[in-house]
Amino acid sequence: MNKDLLNYIIIGLGAVVVLVLYVLFAFVPLHKRMAERNAAYVVQQKQLATAQELVARYDEFTARMGKLQMEIQNLEDCVPSQPRMPELLKDVTRVAAECNIKDFQFAPQNVAVKENYFIQPIQLTITCDYHALGMFVGKLDALPRLVTTQDFQISGRDKTGTTDSISAQITLVTYVRRTQ
Questions:
Q1: Interior CA angle at 46 toward 43 and 51, to 5°?
Q2: Contact 83, 45 (CB under 8 A)
Q3: How far apart are CA 142 and CA 146, in angstroms?
Q4: CA torsion sign, 88 to 89 to 90 to 93?
Q5: 38 exposed, middle or buried (CB, 10 Å; 0-12, 13-18, 19+)?
Q6: CB atoms closer than 10 angstroms to residue 139
Q7: Which residues contact 105 (CB under 8 A, 6 or more apart)?
Q8: DSSP code per residue over 100-157
């Protein structure tokens, strides 16, 4: 009986060893793979939640894109892709008439080339009073087209009648967008 008991113990220990080895080599790698897949699942769930948020905000993004496109269009209108010198001359003439300036000369200068745009300077020679000059420059700056005034040279003239007359030379600078 002793021998039988010893055989049962050896068989039992062998079964336990086989069971432990089975668990170590079968279930532990399986558990690792399950953990990796679970981590991947969590990452995918987060990505899905982010994607669902973006889809939910699609209308907001579309509206914002439309506003930005309108802003770009407005900016492009301020900096045209063609010189449009006749239109600019009409605008300057209209502003001069609104400011009661009757004596002015409009002389376009050589174009300067920059990386993304051209600079078109225009020499203006104006004879008027101080108030008319200030109003003229203010209205030029308010034109829808991007126009800047630079290089002021103002000189006084003799009084003519009841108004003080001045002579001003202004470089009016306008910009033209370079197209590829």
A1: 125
A2: no
A3: 9
A4: positive
A5: exposed
A6: 16
A7: 123, 124, 125
A8: T--EEEEEE-PPEE-SSEEEEEEEEEEEE-HHHHHHHHHHHHTSSS-EEEEEEEEEE-
C-alpha 150/C-alpha 172 separation (Å) is 6
Angle subtended by helix axes 28-56 and 58-78, to nearest 10: 50
Q: pLDDT tens across 160-174, in order? A: 555 678 899 999 999
In whole angstroms, what is the distance from residue 82 CA to residue 6 CA?
Answer: 105
How far is residue 71's CA from residue 1's CA, in Å, rounded to a whole number?
99
Higher local confidence (pLDDT), 176 or 179: 176
For the entire predicted model, the pTM comes to 0.59
Which pLDDT value is given to residue 69? 94
Query: In the prediction, which pLDDT does 177 show?
Result: 85
Measured CA to CA, the distance from residue 161 to residue 126 in angstroms comes to: 18
Nearest alpha carbon to residue 92 among 162, 19, 49, 149: 149
Q: What is the pLDDT of residues 75-123, one digit of tens each?
A: 877 888 887 888 988 999 999 999 999 888 999 999 888 888 899 999 9
